[in-house]
Amino acid sequence: MTKRHVTRRGVIQTGAIAGAGLALPTYLRAQESGFTNAPQGDTVTLGFNVPQTGPYADEGADELRAFELAVEHLNGEDDGGMLQTFSEKNLDGTGILGRRVEYVTGDTQTKSDAARASARSMIEKDGAIMVSGGSSSGVAVAVQALCQEAGIIFMAGLTHSNDTTGKDKRANGFRHFFNSYMSGAALAPILAAQYGEDRKAYHLTADYNWGYTTEEAIRSSTEAMGWETVAAVKTPLTQTDFSSYIAPVLQSGADVLVLNHYGGNMVNSLTNAVQFGLRQQEANGKQFEIVVPLYSELMARGAGENITGILGSQNWDWKLENELGAKYAGTNAFVQSFGEKYGFPPSQAAHTCYVQTLLYADAVTRAGSFNPCAVVEALEGFEFDGLGNGPTLYRADDHQCFKDVVVVRGKENPENEFDLVEIVEVTPVDQVTYEPDHPQFSGGSLGTCNAGA
Amino acid sequence: MTDQTQSAPAQRPAATSPDTRRRGATLGLAPRDLGLFLFVAGLTLCAPFLLNPFPADSSLAQFNAGYPDLMQRFVIFGIFAIGFNILFGLTGYLSFGHAAFLGVGSYAGVWMFKLIGMDVLPAIAASVITAGLFSVVIGYVSLRRSGIYFSILTLAFAQMCFALAYSVLTPITGGETGLQLSLSDPRILGAAASASGNIPVPSLFGVEMRETTDLRLGAWSFSLNVGYYFCAAVMLVAFYLAIRLFRSPFGMMLRAVKSNQQRLYYTGLNARPYTLGAFVISGMYAGLAGGLMVSMDPLAGAERMQWTASGEVVLMTILGGAGTLIGPVLGAGVIKYFENIFSKLNDSVLHGWFAFLPDGLENFVVAIVHPFVGKGWHLTLGLMFMAVVIFLPGGLVEGGQRLSRLFRRKSGPETRSTNDTPAE
Description:
heterodimer; A: about 450 residues; alpha/beta; Rossmann fold; 2 domains; five-stranded parallel β-sheet; B: ABC transporter involved in vitamin B12 uptake, BtuC; two-stranded antiparallel ribbon; 19 helices; 6 strands; globular
């Protein structure tokens, strides 16, 4: 060990240098503007936090494509997509408030912890003013709470659990996607019409938050019209073989199987159920049926021909405008620019993320400021059209979008791998609207908007 | 192999401890340990500056790691790894379920925020105590076996905790969403809501953990964060305690367990109280890390108890150097750096870097680099881990030692005397 001599001169010199360094102009970033991450220079940074690894990596990749497209359109590149059909005409392709849009990406890994770490690095390191994306309700709720604390806006991606705008709602968070309750309300009348009103249902439910709220929503809306719930069995999220759960279904006296599963879970459980021959069976003198409350194109692709004839609900479908007319304007514009860039039609995850980005940009423009509280005010109670879902309302009470819900069925003879589902009906928005204090959504409060330090 | 390199310098102070004590060791540390401690203290103090070596607007700013969240993670996982190393490095018991204690500590911490108030001290105390109780129970059962059976038992307990937290115990743990604060929490010793109507943030005697001062020096920008310095202070205390423990007779006993437990029993000593002691201490370190995690970011997710999280701390310890004092901290830093910085390099960033190349070549280079960054960060980390295990079995610490030996050999004869000491 060498011995260090501390001399008086040394101390004074070091002190002087350190002091000079500290005396250079220093300031708090937030103090200039009054809110977190106020854009500096001529750009504004958005954070796109999507699952790039893990069970929802496919959804994440599609979301990222949509975000890139949205940024291009906002910056005036490409054909502008839905900017032409959007009922608000504030966005003119010059970025947001004249600032060029830049973005950073992160990987949520579909884990609350990782998603929050990724979002925090976007906020603290990259100076993101808004975070969007995600493909799981757990992640959405966790990141939404983080954005509320940090004082930036969260525009939820694919999240279907009631909790996101129910008991875990936050003032700084907004959800465009539909939710479990809406799925139940949209599906119930169609299930009754297709399968009759005296059915006995057996639920298999993924054992986590989204599974619970979906089961509750489907149960209450089907029971309201006369169905009986025979049993509801929870399945572990990590389960890959559902045979042991499917086997007891027929003995239970049920004649409908409801699969409250999503992603890989749903692909596996549906495949097991179909291979078990459930759909050829008769129970209680009726044809046995299977229902999947939340459908997605990506899952349909995974399940292949097993999906044929199975009913479910969707937030949006790329064929909406073609099949149901100009009420759903915007759909074709988006599908066209997405298809031109990537060569295939977008999924509903991509659609909701694209729309959320445009809605944020528009709200900032209308508010004339990036201040989160101004943006919240601009989005609350905002009514718009031309973004593919028909007339839509961003309700002020819970920051949930209210719009029509698409009920779909697996196609008999799909022409290609992107055309796997057919639209059965569109349930109008009135039928899926609920009171803000509905029991399935009770127990939370928005709080007040937080603009950060 | 690893054993020899590490235990040689480690045993020395113990053997000469009466001597050093007579010479008046500072803080109860031998000069060599004091040097190491001061080195770590200096590093943590200057971390906000050291980790932001690139100007904020330069293209290399991508690699800056000096933002509060990541710095906090560095020291918190450092604590976790230090604690793990007390068990694994000293006794050789490879626990594959240590993340359970981290998770339990986190949940305890968040519950304190919900029930008591937003001060971090009760939360951290509760985390450490709860994790300690859990580790007594799990340790008591698991330590009846050693070797692979012990690892499997701890892994099974941890996965059980994870599965319970993820689904069955949803009312207590929040399930998949994670346990988070809400405006309707009682918080009997603090305000239920802040003045602006939001959920209050964790604080220490009123100083908010997220408070950050941005220091701008020319083109450089440094974030000085209250939470980070709080964590750093806790880590230094934890590190100091670990040094004392390594050099204590208790630590000696633990090393004896590692080298030959059978022989220990033949001499009439019961090793189990010692191993249980080490297990509980390292469990409490994990709980401390969990408590700090929620103090920085008040949400506890079940994923932090998953076996991958337990595996991560094993990787950290081995990557840095098992059985060494500073190794686990280094390993934790490297892994967290990869997870947070490399995973954010996407294709558009790569295209930005290689834009100077002709188009075809640019795409080619990007295609080559692509699998190793962004979502491929695991691959890069895995390759690095393999390289370390194959070429540096003693971890990064061994790498450092080899480098310094190389350096000293070159710098001539006057250093020969210092070179002799470690070979003793």
